[in-house]
Amino acid sequence: MNDEIGPPVVGMVGAGQLARMTAQAAISLGVEFRVLADTPQDSAAQVCVGAVIGDYRSAEDLLKFAADCDVVTFDHEHVPREHLAALERVVAVRPGGNALRFAQDKLAMRDRLSATGVLAELGVRCPRYRAVSGPAVDALADGRPIVLKATSGGYDGKGVWICDSNEAVAEVVSHGIDLLAEEYIPFDRELAVLVARSPKGQGASYPVAATVQRDGICREVIAPAPGLDPDVAVRAQRLGLALAAELGVTGLLAIELFQVGDELIINELAMRPHNCGHWTIDGAVTSQFEQHLRAVLDLPLGSTGAAAKAAVMVNVLGGGDPDLYSRFVHVMAADPGARVHLYGKRVSPGRKVGHVTVTGTDVEQLRDRAWRAANYLSLGTEESTGEGGR
Amino acid sequence: MNDEIGPPVVGMVGAGQLARMTAQAAISLGVEFRVLADTPQDSAAQVCVGAVIGDYRSAEDLLKFAADCDVVTFDHEHVPREHLAALERVVAVRPGGNALRFAQDKLAMRDRLSATGVLAELGVRCPRYRAVSGPAVDALADGRPIVLKATSGGYDGKGVWICDSNEAVAEVVSHGIDLLAEEYIPFDRELAVLVARSPKGQGASYPVAATVQRDGICREVIAPAPGLDPDVAVRAQRLGLALAAELGVTGLLAIELFQVGDELIINELAMRPHNCGHWTIDGAVTSQFEQHLRAVLDLPLGSTGAAAKAAVMVNVLGGGDPDLYSRFVHVMAADPGARVHLYGKRVSPGRKVGHVTVTGTDVEQLRDRAWRAANYLSLGTEESTGEGGR
Known about the structure:
Two copies of one chain form a homodimer.
Chain A: E1 9-13, H1 17-29, E2 32-37, E3 52-53, H2 59-66, E4 71-74, H3 81-88, E5 92-93, H4 97-104, H5 106-115, H6 118-122, E6 124-125, E7 129-131, E8 146-150, E9 160-163, H7 166-173, E10 179-183, E11 189-197, E12 203-205, E13 209-214, E14 217-223, H8 230-247, E15 251-260, E16 263-270, H9 280-283, H10 288-296, E17 310-317, H11 324-334, E18 339-342, E19 352-360, H12 363-377, H13 385-388
Parallel strand pairs in A: 1-2, 1-4, 2-3, 4-5, 6-16
Antiparallel strand pairs in A: 7-10, 8-9, 8-10, 11-12, 11-13, 11-15, 13-14, 14-17, 15-16, 17-19, 18-19
Helix pairs in contact in A: 1-10, 4-5
């Protein structure tokens, strides 16, 4: 804790790429930023002075880390609920445990959203769902595949199974983890709305983005979502702001949505900087990382305006070549305007090791450039924009 | 030195705000960045992992620092010439001593520029000048004031005296430092051209900016320079690229120019990120800090294109309130689109403690916003755009 006149200390639990990019934003704000990292090699630990090495599952490590912070926030949602409560007794925790719960527990999230009037008011819905308890699972299915999700602990497609047979369902259920079963939504495309909310209650929404996932991993984000009906966009933004207030979120709230015609269906929530907002570093006036810091510090929020007509972000997944840096050099030569962000992570196949953002006016040209750069960096995982489209 | 596959290590001698903002850029590039700092409280030392504390005037400290680096570069030009030579025997030093010399020694710079054909070819000139050796000083003056400059070691107006009497000249000469006497140029305005050059010889120039200095300290930068004749702009950019090649610069070269009608007169050179280029963080595709890293690493250079029609940068000088952070909060509330960059420096009157950049289309509105934010941050040093205009 900083008792002298001067900027506050923000501590982030977790030291992945989200913490790394938040550290980068903290430099301009002049706030002190610390991370609780698993190892000194963690993405953010490499670039944060005084990274604390510890275990986010240990109350002792968390409390020790928090003792030097004015505000504690998170790079992931895996801190146990009882530890969040212990933290809240000694430090400002943002988002707080009562909000974070709905990003940690998908069943609690579905139940909570069903109980609010917000969704009905905005004409938004959740997929039909139920907790899995034995043989009743496939009653939801109507001949469509059924989606099983681990109620907690999943990320990047891990913990989600799309099952099109009773055998597949039985196989997942046999693992003995807590599951939620949901209706499979045959969506037209996926959208994401990203909002920030401060403890004082100020809210701000970024333009709604179109996202493309493959194997459960975000691959491409286009902002703003091309051709999105302005009424639908406003509805998504109102949803973001209303849910952030309803759930008492402080910091960022990302809502992943399925679009079916003009209908919006809520897929997932996250309460932290999110892959759907990486484009904001190069494409918006205020990056999501700075915005998260402003929000958790209860500072006035920054402009969420786009800095260019369009931005396309493509994730770089680890490929067959461990020498990412040398490949980066070629990308620089091929496209001096591509904004590449590397995370300092060891390359392993399919791992998110960086992203590329390109801004400008013609979305198809931007997609071409962003995919070309990302493909070159991800040797061995070549994909095309054509194949990647939606 | 990094022997494994992976990114190189760049070491910067000096840990002021230029190093701090370079550290921020290094995070995206995924290169390891270290600084040699005077104290752990230095602006960049606060945000750089493993900052080395040492004295840039000590060959031993420099060599020890360089032992862990692939490339050494600089946040200032004060490293003694003989130490640069010692460094060059063990590590890549960029810019090298033979180039840096002309940023260190104003007399050597003037002599060197007079000896090239570049200036005559581009119709650019230096002020008339001579080394000061006793009573012959005022022979240059023609009734105008005479400018005396310390040949080395000056910055932010320190080491420059505008003298309008023989007594004033005698007083400066009496300090016994090496001086250069120059013709006083009654300029219309000041311009700055910023270019990068890599060891492979690739060059790239940013748009020419208009700069406003007061008491020798840069206060305001407008990019691109409003109303600048495109031919004059191209001439300035060609000058930058030609001089970078002629002097063998690697990294950034900033040239401060006087504009008199269509005439360009060279004032100063610097071979590092420069205050005239701070606007590039928020206003250009590639920031000058990333560009400097690319250039010293011999990587392909990034796009120098502007990201907005106009950018205005105003420096924040320390004022009467030490609590810069609290003042920052008000600026955030008043102008959510103002990009404020704080340097983590203790506030003292007149010290550069941060800067504000605003981007958009209407230069007068942008100036208004940038000055309003900077004035609020600099309590006690209030200035107006009207007064500040040119």
